[in-house]
Amino acid sequence: MLESLRGLGYSPETAIADTIDNSISAGASEVDLHFDWQGEDSSVALVDNGAGMSATELESAMSLGGSGPLVQRGPKDLGRFGLGMKTAAFSQCRRLTVMSRNDPFTETCFSWDLDVLASSSDGAWRLLEGADERSSAHLAKLPTGRTGTLVLWETLDRLIPKGGNEQEFLNTIDRIEWHLSMVFHRFLERQWPTLTIRINGKRISPWNPFVAGAVGPSWSSPLEKLSGGLGECEVRAFVMPYKDRLTKAEYDSSGGINGWNAQQGFYVYRNDRLLVAGSWLGLGLPRLWSKDEVHRLARIYLNFQNVGDSEWNIDIRKSIAKPPLNLRARLTSLGEDTRRRARAVFANKGNIQRRPSEEPIFEVWQSIFSNGITKYRVNRDHPAVKAVLDSPLAIDDSVDTMLSVLESTIPVQRIWLDTIEERTAPQQTTQSEVEKVRPMLEGLYRSLLRRDYSPEDARQRLLRTEPFQAYPQLVSELSALDTESEIEHGDS
Fold first, then answer.
1. CA-CA distance, 223 to 336, in Å (whole number)?
2. What pairs with residue 203 in β-bridges?
3. Which residue segment(s) compose the domain that 44 sits in?
């Protein structure tokens, strides 16, 4: 049975996180992880300063299902099935040793050794008292004179596969660090009660999926509380900023270890502990939503209490959650709205969205949906386009015909393929290179002045014209051209 339980699907990072849950439930404010590379004798030890366990409590904790899912748990308890510490350990190692003190001077130690069980002639379940002599040296990691618990993994046949080397071990530690910084970020960020997690003495910094540099999200909804069944949950939607509003360091950090596309969707928390990071939870109408480029800025926070465990269908690894039926309609509606907003920010390449009360931006391209098909049309009211259409150069309908030809031959599929391959939105040089924007801006400014716009009206119009609305400083510098314009008007 224990050999079968090793295949539940834990990764090293989810196994470590599941073990830390017990430390948090025990009131620990400090958790130290010790990764010791010694080839086949490598080990992982977790040490906390929590309340610790008595001999009876530790024996129950070392039993499979000692505290099952039907047991009433405290409101801050992160446990669920009474299996986590054992199944998490067995997924990575063959020998598990736990030593604990519930008072500073009394300690208890038990261990499981899968090799001992495998060699048993009578098939008995033998929970061993004390530690193996090979484990004794590690027990000193639990400081004397205080309460707390030490969890020791040895014979790491799964965490370090046969032939594994030290570099692979170090890479695994890096993945664990990032995972813990995300899963427990709400604990690591709060002022009280505090929680510090260290790996080999280095303190882990929190990674908050809803914080993106100094600019913050492009949009967020009010915090909403949804009631249903055994408890309520709180939910809040975010649209993250487009990459052009972030520094490279902020953009890379906000994308997480798996990149922006993988981070979209719902972030489901249970008692502030992250269970699911970036998933659309099987929602979507008329077909289920999938992760794609245009919605990668959409992230939704959702937190419920452990009284709702049965309704959310939590799995043993605490990495899967399914929303209750009575909440799916509201979550779908919120998801649709957030995805729509994220798509708009993505399509506008991070341009600041105007409030409904403000005058609209003169966009170069307009999308028109008709008969189930989206078509793209050059905006004839865009100041630069209108200046040409109204000029003597627009002989007959030649310019408008040219625009129509361009509109009917837009390589939409090719642009989309390029976008997917580059994993970023296609950029226009006028949006990213200031030196190329300036002459375009000055030329259009002079054109507006020749069409009897006052300098102030011309500048205000340019502040509402794509792509110049992204360069307010350049627009303000156009005042230097006003004297030149007055000379031209005087000569004329």
1. 17
2. 198
3. 2-203
Are residues 10 and 154 both part of a single domain? yes
Do residues 195 and 50 share a domain?
yes
DSSP-based three-state secondary structure for 342: helix
Cis ω for the linkage preceding 193 (within 30 of 0): yes
Q: Is 266 left (phi over 0), alpha (psi -120 to 50) or beta?
A: beta
- Give the pLDDT confidence of 200-210 residue by residue, as tens digits: 999 999 999 99
Domain boundary among 293, 321, 347: 347
Q: Which residue has the higher pLDDT, 380 or 431?
A: 380
Q: Which residue has the tokens 């969890």?
A: 151
Place of tokens 């939607």: 237
Q: β-pairing, 106-113 with 95-103?
A: antiparallel
State pLDDT tens for residues 113-138.
Answer: 999 988 888 877 789 999 999 999 99
CA 201 to chain centre: 26
What CATH number did the domain enclosing 57 receive? 3.30.565.10
Is 122 exposed, middle or buried (CB count within 10 Å of its CB: 0-12, 13-18, 19+)? exposed
Q: Read off the pTM.
A: 0.72
Tell me what pLDDT residue 349 has.
64
Q: Are residues 78 and 179 in the same domain?
A: yes
Same domain, 276 and 315: yes
